[in-house]
Amino acid sequence: MIELSSPAIRATILVVDDNLSNIEVIYEMLTPTYEVLFATSGLEALELTVATHPDLILLDVMMPGLNGYEVCRHLKADIVTQHIPIIFITAVGQTDSEEKGLKLGAIDYIAKPFSPAVVKARIANHLELKRYRDLLADLAWVDGLTGVRNRRQFDDFIERELRTAVRADRPLSLIMLDIDYFKHYNDHYGHLMGDDCLKKVAQTLESSLCRSADMIFRYGGEEFACLLPETNAAGAMAVANRMLDVIQTLNIEHVNSAKKIVTLSIGVCTLIPQQRSKIENLIVPADKALYRAKELGRNRVEFADE
User: Whose CA, among 184, 198, 205, 230, lies 20 to 30 Å from 86?
Assistant: First the structure.
């Protein structure tokens, strides 16, 4: 089951400033309460944000190279980082400068020299708002029946992971899974038993994953998807075969199935994305492999051949 946001987890704040003395002051102020990272240039800030996905960014406006406005523009244009709240810290006090930052997507301004008490209060308030937004997003992205992530979150996550894989030049794998003869199962045992079967399969698939980065989604009906970041073809096939085995181990009776128990048909695709890669380059081959598994007798794993 997916874990909802928890206030007990220390939030991570990224401080971006080319002045080390400013960073030291903020670091000393915030480390008793938060995990604090720092960057001294706009480019370093972009790289660190993608790598660590902080909960909030304190961003200086006036920096050499990429200034704060340009960094903000880059972060808000990227689906991976666009929801991270940004607070500008600046000595610039003109109204038009503040307006420019807010239009770019920043949530607040703190002027130098600043009051530590005010900075901490504003950070706490914005992190609390973010926690509630994350909680609502989590609830909106949970499949009501099975408790795993739903199709809406799949569409969001596969886009993010594809872009991350492009940057890192790392493989991204997708597993598509379908319960064999599920319509026959519903017809024979009834929809209440069918719902119970879906819950057991979803929760067993999720518990079979070994890494927190790997994710199970209910794709639709009796079909599930598993997204495996930084996983090559051999690793993805190993996960798929483990899933095939654990569902058989459940021994859920299915008299209208060839093995007389609930089984899966599984398709796997691995992609090392390029700049022009689209999510269809991953989903379509995995889906074709899934249907080939069905055509070849079900209860098996097939790897995409394109």
Answer: 230
